[in-house]
Amino acid sequence: MNLLLLSNSTQHGRGYLEHAMDTVTGFLPAGGRLVFVPYALADHDGYTAQVRGALDGAGIDVRGVHEGGDPLARLGEADAVFVGGGNSFRLLSALYRTGLREALTKAVGAGLPYMGASAGTNMAAPSLRTTNDMPIVEPPSFEALGLVPFQINPHYLDPDPASTHKGETREERLTEFMEENDVPVLGLREGSWLRVDGARATLGGARDARLFRRGTAPRELPVGADLSELLGTVPAFDSRA
Questions:
Q1: Catalytic residue positions?
Q2: pTM recorded for the entire structure
Q3: Strand order, beta sheet including 151-154
Q4: 4 — alpha (psi -120 to 50), left (phi > 0) or beta?
């Protein structure tokens, strides 16, 4: 697998992908054809134009997977694929509807570089179960691409001790997930990402991450941490503690 999984595509005070541009352009094939999957948002043309504008200076040819009427053919022409953020339920539903879920799994498994951001990073996990999004549509299944064998929670937020809000914190929600599923969850804070190159996985970006495992307290992971051991995970969903 050759993966770049970003927590977010837009950082406060910066342009689209600007906070990770050096990493993004270093990951994508120079002069290559990047197929963008815009299905997490409703405006596919506008979303694709935003990505095209952000990467234009890097000499990367961006094509929307929806352009031309045959998403599978567009994917077959790609040197790399980027699955953008938005609503994860809408995105996964579209991947099933278009046949891209199976096609992406096969293509990326055969070596096609995969970049995801937010919802696109959620797709790389086995299941949709740790997304933060509202289920505005109902996909046929929660089964995602399974490019990595563990779960990821993009946009991970730490509890605010000064908050008077009485709803669940992100940590509490992921703890509840662990009560029903024996699968590690990597909480990616804003500005961080996971790089997978074959059998090696490394935490990148500007902020540390947080790892949740059943039976242990959440663990802080510094930028640069080697997370390759997570690639050997055998997920056990619906396995109550």
A1: 118, 133, 155
A2: 0.95
A3: 151-154, 185-188, 209-212, 219-221
A4: beta
